Amino acid sequence: MILQMLKGKIHKATVTQAELNYMGSITIDKTLMEASGILENEKVQIVNNNNGARLETYVIPGERDSGIICLNGAAARLVQPGDKIIIICYALMNEEEAKQYKPKVVFVNEDNQINLITNYEYND
Question: Domain range spanning residue 20?
């Protein structure tokens, strides 16, 4: 059996930009990508805490340590700068891998700088 499991996430990131006239994707600060284990061109799910919108897109790297979180293309209609979002990526694993794997969960501050990296949910 193959299971779809949480691979990594960036929790409560602040949207810094929304660029409608772009082909599509989400731009994420390269430091945040590396900390969460999210790769360039990887599919991610975006959950908007402000309006409940959920969408899927792919990732392009942004400038390291810039704090950029920019929704591009049609996704820009589902967010506003200042919105809090959760960026989630998943991986397919067999049951044994799933039992051993520890996801990377990155908590950020208002400027999208890392506060905490853990492998479990944390109530902030």
Answer: 2-118
Question: Is 101 tagged catalytic?
Answer: no
What would the 3-class secondary structure string for 74-104 be? HHHHHCCCCCEEEEEEEEEEEHHHHHHCCCE
Q: What's 40's domain CATH number?
A: 2.40.40.20
Per-residue pLDDT of the chain (124 residues; tens, 9 = 90+): 999 999 999 999 999 999 999 888 999 999 999 999 999 999 999 999 999 999 999 999 999 999 999 999 999 999 999 999 999 999 999 999 999 999 999 999 999 999 999 997 656 5
Q: Is 66 in the active site?
A: no
| pTM exceeds 0.70 | yes
Q: Answer yes or no: is 124 within a domain.
A: no
The answer to whether the Cα torsion of 124, 17, 112, 6 is positive or negative is: positive
Per annotation, catalytic residue among 25, 36, 66, 120:
25
Q: Using DSSP bridges, classify how beta strands 104-108 and 84-94 pair: parallel, antiparallel or unpaired.
A: unpaired
Instruction: Establish whether 57 is an annotated binding residue.
Output: yes
